[in-house]
Amino acid sequence: MNHRWGVLLLTKGGFTRDPRTEKNPNKDAPAKKLDKKAAKGIFLRLGKYMLNHWPLFLLALLLALLSNHLALLGPRFSGDAIDIIAAENGVDFQAVWFTVGKMLACYIASGVLSYLLAILMIQLSQKIIYTMRRQLFEKLTSLPVGYFDTHATGDIISRISYDIDTVNSSLSHDLVQVMTSLYTVIGSLFFMWEISKPLIAVFAITVPISILFTRYRSKRVRPLFHRRSQKLGELNGYAEEMLSGNKTIRAYNREDEIVGRFDRRNTDAMDAYYKAEYYGATLGPSVNFINNLSISLVMIFGGILYMFSQSGTAKIGSLFFITLGGVAQFVQYSRKFAGPINEFANIFNELQSAFAAAERIFRIMDEEPEKADLPDAAMLQNISGKVDLDRVTFGYTPDKTILYDLSVCAEPGKTIAIVGPTGAGKTTIINLLMRFYDANSGHIFIDDTEIQSIQRNSLRRAYTMVLQDTWLFHGTILENIVYGKEGASMEEVKAAAHAARIDTYIEHLPNGYDTVLSDDGVNISKGQKQLITIARAMLSESNMLILDEATSNVDSRTEIKIQQAMSELMRGRTCFVIAHRLSTIQNADLILVLQNGRITERGNHETLMRLGEFYSTLYNSQFT
């Protein structure tokens, strides 16, 4: 796992999330109707996933064509057998059985090829879904942090899982089915043309009706499937948000209210699903009725032509001549001709659902990635740790400024503490230092080099972060600690755990450092999670450190021990500390008091206490 994606994952829990950026986190863009150009673009992009595995795709197409071709020969042999039986000079049973044998051979071979095709399509579909998910996840790793601040996690997960599954189920089967159906339609039309040209006139009426009805219905149904995907994404986002806050919900006895809100979203999703399926499901039976009507007309007019042929009204070789076997053949080919049209109408629901899901997936893939580094961006090397913020102004949105004309100079090895009321902009400063966001105006320097001219990966590796909202991944305790330094030895890990005062707890676990943590470490306490993240930071060799309420989840006795360890961790590093407990920052070299996006006080602890303003009032309120 690369360092940058690790930094992005650290945002889970709210480090970079700011309520000002969450205009509508649980809602996607409103459902809109896909125009022809957009639908064509989606179709072509989906086709590329098939062509990425072109050997399997061509083999599947070949098997499908052979299977359909053999199936087309079956009615021809069955019609020949009927003509042999209906012959006036007696029945040649040997010829009948031979013809029937050829018909059975064609159908059996067609069935075997269809079976092989089904197996092949399973393999192809798994390769496609793997490729699409990988590309989507890679795209997510390249998006700016601001994207995750404004989009619900559950909705993103819905696109990775549900939407891709929807696309895959349609792409792996329906696309090949549509293409091979075209061959069946053309082949059936060719054989019908050979049997009886007048009977083809029936389809000159029914086929246009079927096509026009399908086009009309598709324009009505496609937005409904888009809305279905959107509502399911909103439902997943809400469920993820509520489940993550389950303890808080129970503590405030708000279960009934939360369930009521879920019911409303569940009802919206159910209604959207019902409308999409209901109006989509009417298409298949309607087209099927039109096709059955065409077959009925074929049988009626075919029977009339046969009677004319038998009565001698039509001469042998005439345009209107047809045998009994020819009528049987034509009826079977007419079903094969109408079948793909009807089948396309039946899979139309899946295609519409797949297009709606694909649009949501491609919308992520088309998002602008994090702004690229400048072509001549440099790698940070031999960092001393000097950080300068020169008249920095920033706002998450154009109409709301968070920081105003901020100027700070952090000398190498010094500790800068940032205090202030909630919403003052403390975490925003950290976001700018890490280049999760870029300042609207002003400049930020590291060792006199503006961070805009530094490679982001290099810049972020220069910092170590310990956050209030800890993040641990599913894996062993050892894996979570060495995340701070790949290739760290066991001795280094144990030394870091000892410095973080977590070694005794780990060694008393049944599996020690090999104990597996569940997702986000929910099987251990918050304090223990905090200590493991501190041990992770102990391994880091970066020259700059960011602490965001790093001891907020431990008791007072443990905090004293952690402070001693943190003093060792901070030694020789430039440190930025966000703190609400002022006891943790009394020894800071510089304390900044941030209010309404402006620095209102600055100095060390003694200086600010003598001023007798906000800092001293806050300090006295905590210790008096």
Summary of the model, kept short:
The protein is of the alpha/beta class and 624 residues long. The chain has helices at residues 3-9, 36-51, 54-85, 93-142, 145-149, 153-171, 174-195, 203-244, 246-251, 255-281, 283-311, 324-365, 426-433, 456-461, 477-482, 490-499, 503-507, 526-539, 556-570, 605-611, 614-623, and strands at residues 387-394, 403-410, 415-419, 441-446, 449-450, 463-466, 475-476, 516-517, 544-548, 574-578, 590-595, 598-603.
In spatial order, strands of the major sheet run 6-9-10-3-11-12
Number of helices: 21
> Please, what is the average pLDDT?
80
Largest sheet: 6 strands, mixed
Provide a descriptive summary of the structure in words.
It is a single chain. The protein is α/β, with parallel strands linked by helices and 624 residues long. The longest helix is centred in the first third of the chain and has 50 residues. The chain is elongated, with a radius of gyration of 35 Å. It has 21 helices and 12 strands. The strands form 3 sheets. A 6-stranded mixed sheet has the order 6-9-10-3-11-12, with helices on both faces. It has a 4-stranded antiparallel sheet with strand order 2-1-4-5, covered by helices on one side. A two-stranded antiparallel ribbon has the order 7-8.
